[in-house]
Design brief:
Chain B: InterPro entries: MetI-like (IPR000515), MetI-like_sf (IPR035906). Chain B: One of its GO terms (biological process) is transmembrane transport. Chain B: Keywords: Cell membrane, Membrane, Transmembrane, Transmembrane helix, Transport. The complex is a heterodimer of chains A (337) and B (290). The longest helix of chain A has 18 residues. Chain A is of the alpha+beta class and 337 residues long. Chain A is 27% helix and 33% strand. The radius of gyration of chain A is 24 Å and the shape is globular. Chain B has 290 residues and is mostly helical. Helices cover 73% and strands 1% of the residues of chain B. Classes of the chains: A alpha+beta (337), B mainly alpha (290). Chains A and B meet through β6 and α3 of A and α9 and α10 of B.
Chain lengths: 337, 290
């Protein structure tokens, strides 16, 4: 069991209000990702849940029990840190066994659980090595192993993949997702990478300046962003925003169109512009089109067509997929031309 | 990285310094060894002659020799124990966030700036004097008869003084080592359910191993040669109770004017220092690897 409830939690460091007021309800077994730009308070929020920081106000409940002032060890959560935080003077085996040893678990049970964790994470060949003799990905696995032997109510991940190279990151992403399906334990995962958020999460919390901008499934966020911030943050390449008279035509302060929702034509369209840069990725081509009045607009198109720099193209937004925003950035009902 | 040319240049540039250092070391050592095989007494300098191993025999069979060896080791061991344990505890305290941290740290370090004879005199007259010392006053306040430190427990008194002087050094090194421990490691251990006691023994202490090794090695070198504190306070006495090897060499060479015997003692002291160094490197040196 591992449901986590935050009720009007706030946190201030001195005069600086990092988290003004957050209420969240995380269900048992859910994989929730906190995503947001750096400095948005997502790590602080995780540390509040872990008990590594004290809340300034509000309550944190785990499985319905008030844990707001409980020390980290009493909360029954396990955390994987960005730097892995392995104990350098202990072997991999001792690292994984450490939480059990602290809990005075009998030796044979420890051996059994460490063995199980090592098999789950493919660490059997490295059990007697020191952390410094391991690669980044292996260290990451040891850190996860140390977390799973405790059989915690929930796992907390603090940007665990940011120190790994791109290929390994994709691998570990899969491994963590698989681990979640296998263990079915609640996981909270902090990242600034919206791709990680989209691919791994059951539900995503988008944070900005300490506020929850939106809490929903990945596709909800993609299809129905609550406001301009979420619309711009989720999706890659970023959504194009158009202000002024062109937006007014759609009865909005500003409109947003995703790069994949433009129709590209060489003959005619709503907007006309010149190709500034064409990024060819093989499967896709990203065109950065310089449109008069609007500036640079990113368009995604198939990889088969080729475009010259400076070529004139015409863009037509898909009328069903135009996002309209009011002056304060909240989304208006969308999909109408 | 270094090409053959830069290496050659580096050697040429370093040569004068290396040669100077070598002379600096080899000339006094050579002369000490030379004199240790001579009958050479300043009371009768004209009577200089080859002595063979006599000086060594004389020094080693001196009734004070064994005691001074034991005293040397007790002094080194005692001061090391107090400074390493005390230094770790003080460093733990100083590592806590508190008001006036900078000033407190300077205060803690300040004993290191006081030169040894001055420090020893302050302890002798202000703190440990059986008549008007502060310790005596405290003892009398509680109705206990004051201890005459330098008569009753001379070696322990010297150990206390020297430990007071070296405590800041140990504290400083251990504090910087403690500050280099990553916060995340401590937090991880906290999440893993380690209480303060376990965090100290399983995380902080192993992290300090290398710094403790450095403290032990550096202090040992200096503690084997403790002299001023003994000269100013007990003068090696009563009897030979607080005489260490250095002081015995001084006594032989400069109080008895026996340069030959003193030199032999010096050579023995060098050998003892090397034995201790080898022993220490074996015991704790592995902490310095990587």
């Amino acid at each position: 069991m591992g449901s986590i409830t935050l009720d009007h939690v706030n946190k201030a460091f001195g005069d600086v209000q990092v988290i003004p007021d957050i209420s969240l309800d995380i269900k048992d077994g859910e994989f929730v990702v906190f995503v947001g730009p750096s400095g948005c308070g997502k790590s602080t929020l995780l540390r509040l849940i872990a008990g590594l920081e004290d809340t300034t106000g509000g309550t944190i409940k785990l499985d319905g029990a008030d844990m707001t002032n409980a020390p980290p060890a009493k909360r029954g959560l396990a955390m994987v840190f960005q730097s892995y935080a392995l104990y350098p003077h202990m072997s991999v085996r001792d690292n994984i066994a450490f939480p059990l040893k602290m809990a005075n678990t009998p030796k044979d049970v420890i051996a059994q659980k460490v063995d199980y964790a090592a098999r789950t994470l493919n660490l059997n060949d490295y059990l007697d090595r020191r952390p410094r003799a391991l690669s980044g990905g292996q260290r990451q696995r040891v850190a996860i192993g140390r977390a799973i032997v405790r059989e915690p109510k929930a796992f907390l991940f603090d940007e665990p993949l940011s120190n790994l190279d791109a290929a390994l990151r994709v691998n570990m992403r899969l491994e963590i997702t698989e681990l979640h399906q296998q263990l079915k334990t609640t996981m909270i995962y902090v990242t600034h990478d919206q791709v990680e958020a989209m691919t791994m999460a059951d539900r995503i919390v988008v944070l900005n300046a300490g506020k929850v901008e939106q809490f929903g499934t990945p596709l909800e966020l993609y299809r129905k962003p609550a406001n301009r911030f979420v619309a711009g943050f989720i999706g890659s390449p970023k959504m194009n925003f158009i202000d002024g008279q062109d937006a007014a035509r759609y009865d909005a302060h500003s409109i947003g169109v995703r790069p994949e929702h433009f129709q590209l034509s060489r003959e005619s369209g709503t907007f006309t512009g010149k190709v500034a840069v064409a990024e060819q990725l093989g499967a896709d081509t990203f065109l950065h089109v310089n449109v008069e009045r609007l500036g640079l607009i990113t368009v995604r198109t198939g990889g088969d067509e080729t475009f010259e720099n400076g070529e004139t193209v015409h863009l037509t937004p898909d009328p069903q997929r135009i996002y309209r925003f009011s002056a304060d950035g909240t989304a208006l009902s969308h999909g109408q031309a | 990285m270094a090409t053959r040319q830069t290496r050659a240049l580096a050697r040429t540039m370093m040569a004068p310094a290396v040669v100077l250092l070598l002379l600096w070391m080899i000339v006094p050592l050579g002369m000490t060894i030379y004199f240790s095989f001579q009958n050479y007494n300043l009371l009768n300098p004209a009577m200089q002659s080859f002595a063979g191993w006599f000086n060594y025999e004389f020094f080693v069979t001196d009734p004070a020799f064994v005691q001074s060896m034991v005293n040397t080791l007790l002094l080194v061991g005692g001061v090391l124990a107090i400074t390493v344990i005390g230094g770790t505890l003080i460093a733990l305290l100083l590592d806590q966030p508190m008001f006036g941290q900078g000033i407190v740290r300077i205060l803690v370090i300040s004993p290191f700036f006081v030169m040894p004879p001055v420090a020893a005199l302050i302890w002798k007259n202000m703190l440990m004097h059986p008549g008007y010392g502060i310790f005596a006053h405290i003892a009398r306040f509680f109705g206990i008869s004051p201890i005459d430190w330098f008569a009753q427990v001379p070696l322990f008194a010297v150990i206390l003084i020297v430990a007071w002087q070296w405590l800041p050094f140990a504290t400083l090194i251990l504090l910087t080592a403690m500050q280099s421990l990553s916060e995340e490691q401590l937090e991880a251990s906290e999440m893993d359910g380690a209480n303060a006691f376990n965090r100290f023994f399983y995380i902080i202490l192993p992290h300090l191993a290398r710094a403790i090794t450095v403290v032990v090695l550096i202090q040992t070198i200096f503690l084997l040669a403790i002299f001023a504190e003994i000269l100013v306070t007990t003068n090696g006495g009563p009897g030979y109770n607080s005489t260490n090897l250095t002081f015995l060499v001084y006594r032989t060479a400069l109080l008895n004017y026996d340069i030959g015997g003193g030199s032999a003692g010096g050579v023995i002291a060098v050998i003892l220092a090397n034995i201790v160094a080898i022993f220490l490197m074996r015991a704790v040196g592995k902490n310095l690897d990587t």
